[in-house]
Amino acid sequence: MVIEPIFEADFEDSSYGFRPKRSAHHAITAIKETIQKGKTGILDADLSAYFDTILHDKLMILIGKRISDKNVLHLIKMWLKAPIVEDGKTKGGKKNHVGTPQGGVISPLLANIYLHLVDKIVNKKGGIFEQNGIKIVRYADDCAPRRRVHATRTVA
Length: 156
Hints:
There is one protein chain. By secondary structure, this protein is an alpha+beta fold. It contains 7 helices and 7 strands. The chain has helices at 4-8, 24-36, 50-53, 56-64, 70-81, 107-123, 128-131; strands at residues 41-42, 45-46, 84-86, 89-91, 138-139, 142-143, 146-147. The strands form 3 sheets. It has a 3-stranded antiparallel β-sheet with strand order 2-6-5, with no helix packed on it. The chain has a two-stranded antiparallel ribbon with strand order 1-7. A hairpin with a 2-residue loop joins strand 5 (138-139) and strand 6 (142-143). The longest helix has 17 residues, at 107-123. The two termini are 32 Å apart.
């Protein structure tokens, strides 16, 4: 609850998953509005095993750009290194360098921090994506980049 507002202030409007006052319904509405404007080409993408593949060192660099308190950074590192017990079996732990526990309280925020760079690249004013009419609607680790295409299959 303490660090979420720090990152929330930077997140792109195109990001809907795990955010205050945003939901899958809002993401669907954004996609429908874009379709109604004539941009009917949609690519629906899901990042496979996303939470399991977040690189700790890269994530900590991103977090360190907004959080300088060493105690908070240490707590986040400990969270990432904490072992997970599933069905009586322990996974991860101190030697783990990737992943954030799905279902963990802070994991959705960490996932959004990690994917924020993708959102920024796609939404960059004057960038290659904008030049080609491509926008993104991201819900969690799923996204639907969209652009005007004459003949395509629409998925919503």
